[in-house]
Design brief:
This protein has 12 helices and 19 strands. By secondary structure, the protein is an alpha+beta fold. It has an 8-stranded antiparallel sheet, with helices on both faces. A 6-stranded mixed sheet has the order 2-3-8-7-5-6, covered by helices on one side. A hairpin with a 6-residue loop joins β7 (141-145) and β8 (152-162).
Amino acid sequence: MKKRLSIIALLFFALTQGCRPDLDTQDPVPFEPSEEVDPKPTPGSEPEPEPEPEPTGPKSDKCDLTSLKFPVSINPGLSVAPVVKIRNIKGINLIMATFPEGSDLSAIVPFFAVSKKAKAIVGGQTLVNASTAIDLAANKTLTVEAEDGEHRKDYLLLVRTGNVEIDEKVYDFMEGSNLPAVGMAITKDEKIVYVGSYGLAEAEFQNPVPCTDRHLFRLASVSKSLTAICIMSLCQDGKLSLDDKVFAPGGILASLYPGTHAARVDDIMVKHLLSHLSGWNNTLAGDDPAFSWNVNYRNKTLQQRVEYLVKNVSPSTPGTSYSYFNTGFCILGQVIEAASGKSFESYLKEVAAKAGVSDIWVSKTAKSDKRDNECIFYSQNNAYPYDNNMEVAAACGGIIATPTDLMKIMLAVDYGTAVPDILSHEWLNTMYANRTTSTAVGYGYGWQVGHYTLGNVATWHTGNLAGTAAFWVRGKNGVNGVILCNSRYSSNDAAMMTTLAESMSVVKDDY
């Protein structure tokens, strides 16, 4: 009994004092906590994780792409970060992006933000943010799928390589002016060095068509410059004189408009029509006959409209007073037909062919009659693009062409030597000389001379119609440019000019 008590006492001492190192060569036993600790599971015997409780509310149907970037930090092959714009044009979601020239678009990693718990999909592959590389050259759609798996939005990928600085200016202009499409071309030292096609040539929800460099835009009053080139060509060939009377007996259109004319009509010469010095104006005529809703002009042929003018509206003394008058250039279209023996469109194409251009036409009035590669034009400011009779307006505002083809024509009338001019220097001087002294900006024959604010502009013309805005420039520094739009927001015409001018400055410095 005493021996048993001694053993118990010894055990109690060891437990309360711990094992001393000098008494035991084994590692000391650590103190065990009082809580129960799960034993380490053996391989293959891990407990199944508890399932997360199902959310009590409905799953989200939100499927928006709120941000998209392609940072250089995760795309080391890029020299600079691209410019990216997310837009909605007439119900069509777009991603417009420009990568630096020479970029390989076959494996680009995006950094994006979408609606909570939504996912982004390209080419059937769900994207891991800042990780999954996508082929932007091959894929044309990015889809955002909502958490509920039922709702989704498709974003049309309009991706190009180009000058990021220039294209950012264009994208900002398009967004600020609500434009579906813009086409631009810029030349330097008689070479076309930059071409941009942006947005949708046809913003039709079921079948959107991206804009390309072969899409035709309406030129509106830029057409006047082309009509003037045709007149100069006829004069150069000896088929017409700028001093020819238009309506007087023996005049170029005398047989088309016989009979008694209003006072001073017979004094009008070809050169007066070219410089808006005919003496007619919209006030005297009761409106601009080319585009008027006035009962004297509406739904009439061009000949009927001009006949009313000739017989009923007396101009002020021709050659003395500048007043911008569209119908004067419509009449010049008839002059071209009489002098050439061809339709206006046929002779226009003949002259343009000398500059290497064939895809140039007079636009049709009806949308259903448009050419296959012609843009669709969209209204703003409650103005319907297909309300104007384009056949009537042909020579004053009805021509359609591409930006690149317009620059080919510009290079053929710019005094250069690398590209042969189609007019002699004598006739170029005649066309570009200022014929007005009473306006802040001069007007030559079909060209405006000098500019209000843009210092490097020699001659230019704008064009504005419902659904159309246009601006082309012959520069003083060897740089020329054109920008064309398939819609028009009237208060942003100045932004259009600035966008082209600033883009031309980039080309001047960098190309």
